[in-house]
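Appendix B. Chain record.
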Amino acid sequence: MKWEGINEFVAVAETESFTLASKNLKISTAQVSRQISALEKRLNIKLFYRTTRKVTLTQEAQLFYRHCRDVLDGLEAAEQAVTNLQSSPQGSIKLSAPVTYGEQKILPLINDFVQLYSEIEVVSDLTNNRIDLVEGGFDLAIRLGQLKDSSLIAKKLAVRSNFVCASPEYINKFGEPHSLSELKHHNCLLGTRDYWRFNEQGREKNIRVKGNIRCNSGIGLVDAALKHLGIIQLPDYYLQRHLDSGKLVTLLDNMREAPEGIWAVYPQNRYLSPKIRLLVDYLQENLQE
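Structure tokens predicted for this chain:
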């Protein structure tokens, strides 16, 4: 009797929606509502404030939720511990990652991971949009650079560096900039921002630049630079093979901004199961290599 309504309560608390909770639990919204009502009656407290747009926890329910979450996490850990004694890791993992980084770095490692653990299913959704992990039912997401959402738990997997570079042919024709002020004399090919980031004498600095090409594709900007059309600033995973081959060369290296983190993030109230921890550790080990 004490367990009735707990799963429904936690699901509504985490999604802030009876409808989303019912979808995650694969039961009807009416069933969720009945269980919540019965739980409120049994506890003799009000659990949620409800409006047409949102469902929020009452003060009493916030305390109750923390204990319920700990209990459910402990139960899942106990079940997983027993399962691990008898079988290899298994189950489904839903992951989100940025498009280009996901295609170049994450998906190849996911494929290798699934080869090692064939009973684990990984569902990858590549998008550059900032998604709500709980609402979307994601176990974790890969995010780049500075993290803005403090409600997420983050584990650093690796780092990325931004390089300013151009083709040797462009430099031979237009010269090499040796200071940030000289960039105004060059054709700087832009992405989604109209400024580039640098570190000058230990201070972060944003410099507005201009050029005759602007697009939201790093691959497109690399192609333009390879065709000697201008200077670009992009993360290393776009550029490394072209730098290694000498088709592009780096500029203003002494003012390159500090490396940024590449993170695996997941909600604070989402239990990190052994299979997910296994994937996160695998990504960290191989991305650092």
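Further analysis of this model is presented in Appendix C.
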